[in-house]
Amino acid sequence: MAINSVRSDALEPTRSELRDVGFWERVMRLLPVYGLLILTLLLILLFSLLLPDTFPTMLNLRSIVSDKAIIAMLSLAAMIPMVSGKIDLTVGYGIVLWHILAISLQVNYGVPWPVAVLVVLLLAAFVGLLNGILVEVARIDSFIATLGTGTVLYALALWHTGGQQVVGVLPHGFLALNGTRIFHLPITGFYVLGLAFLLWFVLDHLPIGRYLYAIGANPKSAALNGIPVQRYTIAAFIASGLLTGIAGVLLASKLRIGQASVGLEYLLPALVGAFLGSTTIKPGRVNVWGTMIGIAILAIGIAGIQQFGGSFFVEPMFNGVTLLIAIGIAGYAQRRRGAMRLRPKA
User: Fold this and answer.
1) d(C-alpha 44, C-alpha 304), whole Å
2) 3-state SS, residue 185
3) What's this model's pTM, rounded to 2 decimal places?
4) 285 domain residue, yes or no
5) Residue among 240, 78, 93 at smallest CA distance from 154
6) Which candidate among 7, 19, 289, 293 keeps its CA 20 to 30 Å from the CA of 279?
């Protein structure tokens, strides 16, 4: 059985633990759970006070949703294998090829846009299946396997385009996939919310979610308890690949051109959002709403700093620093809880 690349053990305090401690101890226990959410709200308040003419506006909200919806979808895609203890790097490489294919099938080969979208989604799901087989059947570490698969996808994108842009007239129906607005907001934001609610329901309220979390916590114990580890892990990679394909289609609808230089910049923020999701709401366990908060704090922080006149390096710098801080908070919470469990009761 493949070695887990990511552990998924929930560390949020239980009610019994909170009942037996004082007020400040309770606050310290809950801080890792809701700390990022509180920080997100404080950032919104801070930037709204400092930038009252630009930050708390509908225009800024539309800009944030439009810019970060694709990243949020990729974070949710990366989150699914993380639940089972695996990492999928093809979320950043795959979107390069998928958005190019979604356009080139229509422009160069005359394929109707619904068929082109279907072909892209099927290919993306197949790549997810291939990743699952490499990890669970060939027993290659998920980081190495998906890095190799992703590099091949990126090479195929370069070969397919020849280093040139794919440009052409696209049908209105395809452009409407990303260009439509609902309540004056980009429809992509509603895609992300709908997907988040669906994944939350599946992971938190259906047996498949409990099985994936059990696999992420301890695959050997999960197998001994009768859970088909290989089947569910491969299914997680297929779901991740499918969501990456959807993100690629939406990116193509947004950009209206295909080029191999676009897409890789989504890899780091997508992974950062997914990792941040394991440090809040349910610290130590990758979860949907934690991932959404992670993306929100990245989007709000970067938007506010850029409106202050931040340079081009602000976004990657903010992503990296935020990830390091979040990992530090999660590590502190884990060590503190372990110490509390070892402390003898009075």
Assistant:
1) 9
2) strand
3) 0.87
4) no
5) 93
6) 19
Residue in 297, 302, 300 with CA at minimum distance from that of residue 281: 297
The tokens describing 185, both together, are 């907001």
Chain Cα centroid distance, residue 256: 23
Least confident of 34-48, 110-124, 229-243: 34-48
Position 206 pLDDT exceeds 60: yes
Share of the chain above pLDDT 70, in %: 83
Position 322 confidence tier, pLDDT thresholds 50, 70, 90 = confident
Q: Under a CB-based contact definition with an 8 Å cutoff, are residues 79 and 274 in contact?
A: yes
Residue 270 lies in a domain: no
Tokens 């260009």 -> residue: 179
The verdict on residue 306 lying in a domain is no
> What is the span of the domain harbouring residue 183?
59-263
Based on C-alpha coordinates, what's the Rg of the chain? 21
**156: its two tokens:** 């195929």
**Count of structural domains, the chain:** 1
How large is the average pLDDT for residues 210-219?
A: 92
Closest CA to 249 of 58, 77, 63, 60: 77
**In residues, how long is the chain?**
346
Identify whether 179 is part of a domain: yes
